[in-house]
Amino acid sequence: MKRKSSSVPNSPNLKIPIPIIFKKNNDLNTTIVLNYIPICHRLHRDPKHVLIYLNKVVNLSGEIIGSQLRINGDYKSKQLRDIFKRYCQLFIMCRHCNLYNTRINSDKKVECQNCKFKFFENL
Q1: pLDDT on residue 120
Q2: Which pLDDT score, from 0 to 100, does residue 2 have?
Q3: Pairing of strands 102-104, 68-72
Q4: Helix or strand run (H / E) with residue 31
Q5: Is residue 29 situated within a structural domain?
Q6: Distance between the two ends of the chain, CA-based, in angstroms?
Q7: Cβ(31)–Cβ(122) under 8 Å?
Q8: β-strands 109-112, 68-72 pairing
């Protein structure tokens, strides 16, 4: 089954892929996000940067293993999607034009590809 989620950079909305969750042997203390790297690529962010947000700001304890994210705790797909949405609001959405078409440049500034506004990420 294919999941629909397309990034629309010039839209005020950003479609975030639905996190595909896996529980190993019904272990409620560990959540594995099978499509973590594809989610980060859709957001145009380094998976390590997103992991810093998850560990520091949201206080999730996680690690990247291959293309997956292993998180300590029992999380549902919707909970994680809401966390990714909050990340997008804080670190992807342009603070000038409110579009989601930004990249982190070599100066560690977030730069909007539409209006060229630059701002620092506070992570």
Answers
A1: 85
A2: 41
A3: unpaired
A4: strand 30-33
A5: yes
A6: 36
A7: no
A8: unpaired
Is the residue at 99 inside a domain?
Answer: yes
One-letter amino acid at 32 equals I
Domain that holds residue 51: 21-120
Task: Give the whole-angstrom CA distance, residue 63 versus residue 70.
Answer: 5
Helical (H) or strand (E) element with 90 = helix 77-91
Our count of domains for the chain comes to 1
Q: Residue 56 is which amino acid? A: K
Residue with tokens 């560690």: 108
DSSP 33: E
Q: Is residue 49 exposed (0-12), middle (13-18) or buried (19+ Cβ within 10 Å)?
A: middle
Question: Tokens 């989601």 appear where?
Answer: 100
Instruction: Output the six-digit token pair for 82.
Output: 């809401």
- For 14-71, write each residue's pLDDT tens digit: 788 999 999 877 777 899 999 999 999 999 999 999 999 999 878 888 999 999 999 9
CA dihedral 113, 117, 120, 123 (to 10 degrees): -50
Write the single-letter amino acid at 113: Q
Q: Residue 13: is its pLDDT beyond 80?
A: no
Average pLDDT for residues 113-118, to the nearest whole number? 92
